[in-house]
Amino acid sequence: MILEDKKAGIIRSLRDAGEKAVSGEELGKTIGTSRTMVWKYVKMLQDEGYVIESSPGTGYVLRSIPDKLYAEIIRIGLDTDVIGHEIHYFDEVDSTNNVAKEMGHNAPEGTIVISEIQTSGRGRKGHQWVSPYGGIWLSIILKPTISPRHASRMTLVAGIAVVNAMKKLGVTASLKWPNDVLVKGKKICGILTEMDAEPEHIDFVVVGIGINANINPDAMNEELRKTSTSLSIELGKRIDRADFVQSILYELEQEYTKLSTQSFSFILEEWMSKSDTIGRRVRVITPQKTIEGNVTGITADGALVLEKGDGTSEEIIAGQCIYL
Question: Residue 44 maps to which CATH number?
Fold first, then answer.
């Protein structure tokens, strides 16, 4: 990832300089390379959509940054120790989770796969997830030291992180079991956690996060417009997607660290405090049956606890949850 580091260094220096021109010699000293290589890196950046003016004898001035989720843009200002320090960017993939799973064994923990478009984005049970340009479609490779039966905790942790990041943005979101983030009752984010594991050991977990960020309502079909929303719709303006990705990664690392440093009961309490599902009457559809009841909580394994009409309770580890 040396190339991205060099490009990020140039962008950071030019952005910090504002209207003041920065010479190739200065940039070379900053990123540890020659003036000739600086020129080559600047040319690469210009080809990628950065507007960088250059004047012989004065230097370079950054005029604008493209609305892309390039690795070097996300890296600038990223305040994490592990997550996001290796980023694989794509213009288009079938699914970021698929790409991440292919590299999961060899990739360092915290590796990110991010794409502008997904052609075959999916949610739970293989349901299609519409992923046009303007959204945030990313997957994070993590290697937690937890039992495979606790893998669903990663979904809870990711949900908390997304809600916290949205709160910083000024959007009040809530969590719907098992893997949705809602705003005003409409879906704004889906989380899909997949793992590669032995019976008693997780090799890696891929946490896929799909967020309707700057999605134009016209990009949604009529059915989706009724049930979904986006950050730009809620805020009445487009957001800086790269900044928001940085915020998500920071919040995710904070919650992920808690898995190994705190009792999970604290994370569970945090999830329930942000939940839109606790206290509701729901119908849950599983491959085996359909069950209705009042939601009283979730277990340490992420199972939904339903109180049925006969006064007994049942735990459901996975299923489609419909509010009644």
Answer: 1.10.10.10
